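Page 37, continued from 36.
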């Protein structure tokens, strides 16, 4: 199993920036973790993909955040970060970190709240 802890959320004005960090309890570079990702869920909405980074380093982004958000991983520190720039009110949500392992299991953190004021 993998325990994930997110941090870095907060209140920011539209146009501002935040950096979210997810710390994993085990190596994210070893055999077993297929990809790490960030997802978000606004009230009364489903949980949506924001960005993922594969073990190979390949990244994918939701269209709504392309060009504004950057996902990165630090294998030495077992962390995955999400740099969010030019934040908009519609980015307001609870952001979750996820690890997807090669057996097909998903592990989730508790989430960190991001609130963007317009």
């Amino acid at each position: 199993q993998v325990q994930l802890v997110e941090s870095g959320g907060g209140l920011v004005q539209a146009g501002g920036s935040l950096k979210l960090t997810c710390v994993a309890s085990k190596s994210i570079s070893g055999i077993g973790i297929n990809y790490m990702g960030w997802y978000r869920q606004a009230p009364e909405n489903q949980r949506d993909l924001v960005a993922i980074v594969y073990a190979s380093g390949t990244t994918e982004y939701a269209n709504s955040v392309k060009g504004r958000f950057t996902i990165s991983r630090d294998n030495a520190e077992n962390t995955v970060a999400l740099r969010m720039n030019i934040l908009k009110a519609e980015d307001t949500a609870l952001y979750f970190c996820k690890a997807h392992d090669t057996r097909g299991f998903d592990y989730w953190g508790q989430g960190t709240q991001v609130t963007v004021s317009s």
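Residues 94 and 113 are 4 Å apart (CA to CA). Flag for discussion at group meeting. The chain has a mean pLDDT of 94.
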